[in-house]
Amino acid sequence: MGEDAAVAGITLLERAINYLLGSLLLVTPETLARPTPCAGWDLRALLAHLDDSLSALTEAVEAGAVGPAGGPRATGEPSTVRAAATHLLGALAGARYRVEVSVGGRPLTTAIVASTGAVEVAVHGWDVAQACGADRPIPEALADELLDLCALLVTDLDRPA
After folding, report:
1. pLDDT (tens digit, 9 = 90+) per residue, 49-104?
2. What angle do CA 102, 68, 161 make, to 5 degrees?
3. Fewer CB within 10 Å of terminal CB in the chain, N or C?
4. For residue 110, what pLDDT is reported?
5. Rounded to an integer, what distance in angstroms lies between the CA atom of residue 97 and that of residue 2?
6. Please, what are the domains in the chain?
7. Contact partners, residue 45, CB within 8 Å, separation at least 6
8. Average pLDDT in the 16-31 region?
9. Cβ(35)–Cβ(5) below 8 Å
10. How many angstroms separate the CA atoms of 80 and 100, rounded?
11. Which distant-in-sequence residues (6+ apart) come within 8 Å of 49 by Cβ?
12. Residues with Cβ < 8 Å from 155, sequence gap 6 or more?
C-alpha cells in the first residue's frame, strides 16, 4: 500500500468528518444528556470519546505516531469536537505523502489508520444524529465503502452480545 492507498484512506476520512460536522450542528445543550445508540453512553460522553478519537487521529497525521493515551482532555462539548474535527481536516492536507504511522510503537499504513478512523468518525456521526432525534443516514456512497471496510476491521468478537 503506497501513496495512492494513503490518499484513498485520507479522502474517505475527510468525507466521514464532513458527515460528522453536519451531525454536530444538531447538538443543543438540551440533547447532551440524551442516550445514544452506544449502550450506557449519553451524548456528552460520546462527544468526549469523539474528541479523544479525533485527537489521536490528528496526532497520527501531524506527528506520524500515536503514543499511549494521556490524561482526560475531552470536555464533551460540541464546539470542542467541531474544532478538533476541523483541525484534523486541515492536518489531513499534509498527510497525503505519509505512507506509515506508528500506533503504540507498531507501524501501520496511513491508509489503514485513516480508513479505520473514517469508520469510527462516520458511525459516531450517525450516533450523534440519532441522539438528537434526527433521521440522518450516512450518505450511501460513504456507507457502502465503510461497510466493505467493516468486514475487514470488525469481527463478531468486537460486537456487543
Report:
1. 999 999 999 999 888 888 776 665 667 889 999 999 999 999 988 776 667 888 88
2. 95
3. C
4. 86
5. 9
6. 3-154 (1.20.120)
7. 36, 76
8. 98
9. no
10. 28
11. 41, 74, 124
12. none
